[in-house]
Amino acid sequence: MPPNGQPKRTRSERVSAIELPPGMFQRLMTALSHPDILIRLGITAVTIIALCIFMQSWSPPFSYRVGYTPTRNLASRVAFRQFDPLATAEAREKARNQAEAVYAQNPESIVQLRAALRNTLLEISTAESLEKLSSEAWQPFELIPTAEAKKPPSQEQLNKAFSAFRKKLAGEEPLKRIEAAVGKSLKKYETDGLLVKPADGNQNKILVYPQGKPEAVKPVAMSEVLLGDGETVRRDLADSLDDPILAKRLFAWLYPKLAALSTLNLDQERTEANRERAEAAVENVHINYSAGQTLAKAGEPLTVRQIELLRDEDAAFYHQLLPLSKFFRIVGSLIVLTVWAVFGGLYLYRRERQILTNLRRFVSFQSLILLTVLLAQWASRDPWHAELVPVLLFGQIIAIVYQQEVALLFSGLVALVLVLGIGLGLGEIILLVGVTASAIIQLNSVRSRSKLIYVGILSGLLAVLLTWAIGLLDEQPLAKPLFVEALRNGLLTLAAGFLMTGLLPLVERIFGILTDISLLELGDVSHPLLQELVRRAPSTYNHSITVGSIAEAAASAIGARGLLVRVGAYFHDIGKMLKPGYFIENQGEEANRHESLLPAMSTLIIIAHIKDGANLARQHHLPEPIVDFILQHHGTTLVGYFFERASQQSREDPNAGEVDESTFRYPGPKPQTKEAAVMMLADAVESASRTLVGPTPARIESLVREIADRRLRDGQFDESGLTLRELRTIEDSMIKSVTAIYHSRVKYPDQKTI
User: Fold this and answer.
1) Rg for the chain, CA atoms, rounded
2) Residue 731 contacts residue 704 (beta carbons within 8 Å)
């Protein structure tokens, strides 16, 4: 057994005990098992699926638009039929007009007419002579003279005719026979109805129901209810009476009254319902097209009618696709979108990791992509063709919120997604990417709201030129449709600039960023917090203004946001206004209040201005990026003066314990951005430079280098992303700025020292 008491292992055991570092696959699986990464992968998967749904990736896109001039004949790929709205409307109108009108039959007027005839006949039969009979009773029975008659009948002839007619009415039996003959001749009118003037609609047949019994409706021929010349009544009377003269006189009395009589009342409600049923029963009329039939000719701009025809052909082609073909299209779209998501994710991981690490920003970024694609698909329809506007807004928002490179990449990816979704060609992709890229490149700085409008104007001019150029490359005729398309794209681009101007405050709020416009407004020295700082701690205010000037120049030197650093510097020490007398720059000739305090207590007071400043900033609704400057401008640095005092007291007092350095450090966090790191260094340099006696350029340089080196060795820049090259550039800028502040002046001969 070995001296250490452990059993001796064989060579194979020692070899198997050696553990190699995990391979790439193992590292990948370990990373994928992390909950945060799984959440982000799930969100990305949902985005990809949603994009597939928005794009309807299971069907081929339809790429033709009104005004486009095809370079070849467009023929049908499959046999199909197209709905003909005009023919359908005509057929339905015809069916409506042919629908039967509905009438309610009320025979009471005919019953009363027969009773009136009986009473008149009774009056005539009881009259002694024509002279004693009222003219109203006999006159309707007079026969109209024929055309062959040379003169009207004489009174004697009339008396003779009256006497003959009265004899035929003598007795009860003749009246019953006449009443039966009249009833027989009017029976069908009592049953089916009598109509003077038919309503619009079917003139051959109507629907009739007894008054109050609509369920008993029945069809009736129009000829059966129209009186016409009364030939049916005349014939029935002649057949029933076997007395032509009597039949003629009865007809002469009946016909005028029947001609003015109607027993049928039009039921408007049921008639309209019947017409609607007839109209609804008409099926759509279609035009049939065969496979290979030409739908649009080469060289002729597509009209609205032709676009509808091509859409119907496209729908027919889609419906005949096999389910397997649709499935393969979905799989292909998922693969393409997944590849794009991987490339985009890798780029963000290397260049803009904050989007991935911050879940809120990650969700907002994905949601913005979905919203852009959805709006672009909706806006791409006829007659707008305005998919350029959502893509432009997307590119400008990303450029403002993050970086221009990120905006360029993902605007291109969104444009490619639209290729799959709405069937854009190479020319439209060039237009989308070109115009969006031109807008993004101009957004390196947005210091005024008019800048976005200027961006829209310049990009709009480019949109016009690109539209013309793409149209010529696509062999489109240099005619009105191309000029209209170019003008529309230019105006849409300009409209996007105005929209972006209005959306800017909303974008800042949603994404938690500050544009230069907001920073200029926030950096106004009339801000209530700054005015209060001037009143309570004027020296701290002057210090903040100087730090802002130094930090802005240094940040700009490394390509960081100098304006953001300057505005952050204005507010970084606002917490000192609560206890201004405890800070050296505000004490003046007063006694140092820390002389009577323990070093630990003094440290707590000094450190407290960080928390107090953050609370004040949030109470006055300052943006979070400004609050971050307040929290991070000291990082976790050591409050050196009071730490040294505490250490000295500990060494002089043998009963005192060892001083804990962590209690004399600021709570942090360390600077998380390059701007915050610049702010930290500028704050320390400005404060330390005031202690220099005879601040020559050499002494200033030595001071700046020493402070920067101390912060670097203390690890304060570890989380800021600042490189050593950038740190040296910052140092050089600050040396120039502080030297300019303490530059020497020429002393005039008569100048006196006060």
Assistant:
1) 51
2) yes
Q: Nearest to residue 514, comparing CAs of 407, 629, 619?
A: 629
What confidence score (pLDDT) does residue 751 get?
A: 52
Report pTM. Answer: 0.68
Q: What residues contact 557, with CB distance under 8 A and at least 6 apart?
A: 729, 730, 732, 733
Which residue type, as a one-letter code, is found at position 491?
L
For 91-179, strand residue ranges (E) read 102-105
Degrees, nearest 5: CA angle 674-677-680: 155
pLDDT of residue 22: 61
Computed over every residue of the chain, the mean pLDDT equals 85
Residues near 84 by Cβ (< 8 Å), separated by ≥ 6? 284, 285, 286, 287
> Quick one: DSSP state of residue 207?
E
Residue keyed to tokens 């002694």: 128
Confidence at 184, pLDDT banded by 50, 70, 90:
confident
Alpha helices in 537-588 (DSSP H): 538-557, 562-571
Would you call 273 helix, strand, or coil by DSSP? helix
Q: Write down how long the chain is.
A: 754
CA distance readout (Å), 519 to 522, 543, 675, 738: 5, 20, 14, 24
Identity (one letter) of the amino acid at 648? Q
- Please tell me the distance from the alpha carbon of residue 14 to that of residue 412, in angstroms, as a whole number: 55
* 221: enclosing H helix or E strand: strand 218-221
Residues 6+ apart with CB under 8 A from 176: none
Given a cut of 90, is residue 710 above it in pLDDT?
Answer: yes
Q: Among the residues of 323-387, which ranges form H helices?
A: 323-351, 354-357, 359-379
| Residues 643, 689 contacting (CB under 8 angstroms) | no
Is beta strand 218-221 parallel, antiparallel or unpaired with respect to 205-210?
A: antiparallel
pLDDT at 238 over 50: yes
In angstroms, rounded to a whole number, what is the distance separating the alpha carbons of residues 50 and 64?
A: 25
* Helix locations, 572-656, DSSP H: 599-619, 624-632, 640-652
Range list of H helices, 147-220: 155-168, 172-192
Residue 216 and residue 209 in contact, taking contact as beta carbons nearer than 8 Å? yes
Kindly give the pairing relationship between strand 286-289 and strand 80-83: antiparallel
Instruction: Tell me how crowded residue 653 is: count the other CB atoms within 10 A of its CB.
Output: 9
Name the strand (E) or helix (H) holding 214.
none
704 in Cβ contact with 576 (< 8 Å): no
What pLDDT is attached to residue 672? 92
Return the number of other C-beta atoms located less than 10 Å from residue 548's C-beta.
24
In angstroms, the CA 467 to CA 488 distance is 10
Residues ≥6 apart with Cβ < 8 Å to 280: none
Q: What are phi and psi for residue 570, nearest 5 degrees?
A: -60, -35
| Burial of 445 per CB tally in 10 Å (0-12, 13-18, 19+) | exposed
- Per the CB < 8 A criterion, the answer to whether 227 and 196 are in contact is yes
Report the C-alpha dihedral over residues 295, 297, 298, 299, rounded to 10 degrees: -130
Q: How far is CA 470 from CA 75, 485, 667, in A?
A: 25, 11, 60
Q: DSSP letter for 748, please.
A: P
* 69, 301 Cβ separation under 8 angstroms: yes
CA gap 614, 475 in Å, rounded: 63
